[in-house]
Amino acid sequence: MDPLVENPNNPPPAATATATATNAAVAAVPIAATTLTVTNPFANSLNSSLTVKLDRLNFLAWKSQVLPTVIGHGLDDILLTGAAPPRLMVDGSVNPEHISWVRKDQLLLSWLRSSMSEAMLGFLPQYTSSNSAWRALEQRFTSQLKARILQIKSQLSTIQKVVTLIS
Considering the chain, what percentage of its residues have pLDDT values greater than 90? Predict the structure, then answer.
């Protein structure tokens, strides 16, 4: 056999070392003979796409930048529903789609955290998925917005009473 032609039964030493290291890293997770390709959904434009970091006062402005970016990258199902594919296939093997989903979710969670001020990061350490962090942020800021609306309505009512008394 020509030494320049690779023999699939006898891979070159570098390929063997790589395959062994790769297999050792995932030995605890048996995967069927499937090639799993996970692309970074953030590789194109997320680093510079947000001009506002989330703080205690700008949730709506921050959200108005985050949602179109997430939707544009096709990650809205992960962020808004949190519905992961089944972990295991019918035959008991690990579902490659689940692995890909978890990786995308963790990249999304990391990206969300990187778009926040340090003060806001302290609010999220216990959340381990992008969806749980998103729901917690929406709940926190929705209640703040409702309280602010009630405060403004009260102030407006007071102003209207004063105007009525003056007239």
Answer: 49
